[in-house]
Amino acid sequence: MKNLKKYLTHWFIIFIPALIILACAKPAHLNITYQLPPLSDHLKGKTVVIIIKDQREDKVVFGDAIKAEFQNQDNKFGLSLGRSPDNITQAGIFHLPALFKEAFKQRLQNEGVIIASPPKDNMAVFEIILKIFQIRREGFNWITQVSYEVNLTRDNQLIAREKISGTSERFKLLGRNTSEKVISNIFTETLNQLDIKKLFQQAMF
Questions:
Q1: What secondary structure does DSSP assign to 77-97, as a single string?
Q2: 22: burial class by Cβ within 10 Å (0-12, 13-18, 19+)?
Q3: Ordered domains of the chain (ranges, CATH)
């Protein structure tokens, strides 16, 4: 009986601290939830190929003041898709350019667009060019600067273009989960700012 108690005590001493360490460890990636607009069939039957180009001059996402909060960050982002408050699904883990590509893929499909792969001759290309994506903190505020453009091309000819650029400011609350919600809101606003229906109307196809 004494040996059993000694054995259990030994494992208790090892096991409990390990659980505490795991519970306190920060995830290796930041989780972003992208809230899709209401489902639509405005562009039903349209077909495009998606490509992404990362043309950011500065590929550092977080400013020095908030790097410590995400010190274990592996430069990847977990993407979840919100179709309603009660319907959120995980899409995967991506580097920033692939995150934008996957989110726009879901946005296009949400509008009824068919995503083709591999591309075929005379097929329209939905080209995303990422220019800036930076998040910094000034005092108690999050400052996010985002810039990207979307080109619709066919046979290497530009047929429509839309540029999105802006700066958002949010009050910084404590806690990683709160930070992820703030960044998720900014990411959602940035992507949904693009008027995809208008872009396709401009392209006249």
A1: EEEEEEEETTEEEEEEEEEHH
A2: exposed
A3: 2-203 (3.40.50)
Q: Which helix (H) or strand (E) holds 179?
A: helix 176-192
CB of 27 closer than 8 Å to CB of 72: yes
Hey, how many other C-beta atoms are within 10 angstroms of the C-beta on 186? Answer: 20
Each residue's pLDDT tens digit, 83-130: 877 788 999 999 999 999 999 999 999 999 999 987 777 889 999 999
Residue 192 — very low, low, confident or very high, per pLDDT cuts 50/70/90? Answer: very high
- CB burial string 23-42: b at 16+ within 10 A, e below: eeeeeebbbbbbbbeeeeee
pTM (two decimals): 0.81
Q: How far is CA 102 from CA 2, 87, 108, 204, in A?
A: 59, 18, 10, 25
pLDDT higher than 90, residue 79? yes
- Residue 194 CB partners (closer than 8 Å, separation 6+): 150, 162, 164
Cβ contact 28:179 at 8 Å: no
